[in-house]
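Just scan my protein:

——
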Amino acid sequence: LPVFYANTVLLNVSNLPFRLQKLKEMFISKFGSAPKFYARAPGRVNLIGEHIDYCGYAVLPMAIEQDILIAVEPVQTQVVQLANTNSSYLDFSTTVNNIQINKTKPQWHNYFLCGLKGIQEHFGLNNPTGMNCLLDGTIPPSSGLSSSSALVCCAGLVTLRANGKTLSKVELAEICTKSERYIGTEGGGMDQSISFLAEEGTAKLIEFSPLRATDVRLPSGATFVIANSCVEMNKAATSHYNIRVMECRLATKLLSKSKGLEWRKMLRLHDVQTKLGVSLEEMLTIVKEVLHPEPYSTEEICKCLGISLEELRSQILSQNMQDVSTFKLYQRAKHVYSEAARVLEFQKICSEAPANALQLLGELMKQSHISCREMYECSCPELDRLVDICLQFGAIGSRLTGAGWGGCTVSMVPTDKLNTFLKNVKKAYYQMDGQRLAAENNSLFATKPGRGALVFVEA
C-alpha cells in the first residue's frame, strides 16, 4: 500500500489485500457488520541506543514490517468490545467511561486501554464513542520488537479517528508514551515515536525534549537480520526494567549533588550533562570520579543526598521500588553515557559513509552488546549465545535489541552472504533445540526500514 499517515490523510483502497480481506471477513463473522476503517502501527527494531531514551538521549531505531492491525466499527453504545484473531487472547469488553487498567497482571487488552485512555484524557472526552475492534498482530510477543507499544499506538490512533479528532504524529507519539505508563512501564518514548514517525527506506535518529526525528540512511551492502532468542520477557510483568530506570534516576541525583546542582529537580542523566555543559566523554570521567562500582544501599544513598530513608521512599523511589535495597549506579551511568556516544557516532558514520563504514558500524554494535551485558546487565545466556553465533557465521556486528533479558538480537550482515548466514544460524541456534525448532520460521528474518502508523478506509 502507498504510504499515507492517517491523522491527516485517509487512504482509499479499492481492492483489499489478502490479510485485510481476511480480517474484514472475521470481523463480520464476529460482530455482524463490516468495519468502517482500519488502523496499523508497526513494531520496531532498535539498531543502537539501548536503555537511554528514558535518560533523555537519542536512539536509532527503524520500523519493521511486522505490525498491529485493527479493524474498527464505531458504535452508538458507550462500550468497547475487543477481540483478537489469535484465539489464545480472550475477548474483552468495557464501558468507555470506566477504564480500569490492571498493572499487576498485564494482559493484551490493557495495552489497548492505555491508548484509549490517553486520547480520552488528552481531549477530556466526556462521552467517547464506543467501538467494536478486531485485532491482528504479526509482531512476536515479548520479543523486544515493541509489540506492546505498537498496540498502545494503534489503540490511540483508533480512538482518535473514531472520535473525529486530529493530532500531529509528534503529539500522538508523546501521548502514547505517557499513556503506556498506565500499565506500569516507565518507558522513554522511543517505541511510540518510531511507530508514528517512521518512513519507508530510512532509519531515524529520535531525539527528545523536544521530540524530533532525523533520517539516517543506512549503508548499502549490508542487511539487518532479526533473530529471536525465544526467551520471552514482559517489561510490565517484571521489575528488571523499572529498577534500571530508578538506578539511572538515582545516579542522576548523586552526580548532580556532587557537582552542586539542584539535584532534587534533576531526573535524567542527560540533564546533568546539559547543566554542566560538558561532553559525553567528560561525563564518563565524572562518573568514575563520583560513583563507585560497588552497589549502593538505600542507607548510603540517603547519606550521599543528606535525606532520610522516609524521604527517599516517598519523594524519589516509585511505589514498586520500595522493597529494593541495593542499586548499581556506576555501571548504569557508564552504560548510558557510552551508549549515547555510540548512537551519535553511528549516525555520523552513516552520514559520512567512509569506505570502511560497515566495519565501523559493526564495531559499535559489538561494543553496545558488551555494555548491555556487563554494565547494564540486561542480556541473558541465550542472547549472548545468539550474538556469538551470528558473529561466527558472518555478521559484521550483532547485539541484543529492545529491553533485553530475552527477546531478539539484531545483526548487520553483508547482503551477498545473507542466505548462507540465515541457513547457518538456523542450524546452529534453532535446529539444535526442539523447542526453538517449532518457532524457527518466525524467529529469523531480514528486515528493511518500514513505514509508520496509518489509518485507511475501503473505497
Observations:
- Confidence is low (pLDDT under 50) at residues 1-13.
